[in-house]
Amino acid sequence: MRKPSYGAMLFALIPFVAICFSVPLWDRIDPVILGLPFNFFWLIAWLLLTPLCMWGAYRKEAHCASDPRREDGGTP
Question: Phi and psi dihedrals of 25, rounded to 5?
Fold first, then answer.
């Protein structure tokens, strides 16, 4: 089993960082978006954006696996 590429790992870390480490930035109730407090809207938005980031990580890995310049020849 080979290590994932750095690009794929960065794609996968985006939702984690956005949800876990940005709390002091969005911990507010006053702004209301679509009838939801901002903090609840932020979490729901990232729940919907996470599959998009995972798709980007998958595409990055698929591209790296098929790259003939890799030292392992792109084989799993």
Answer: -80, -35
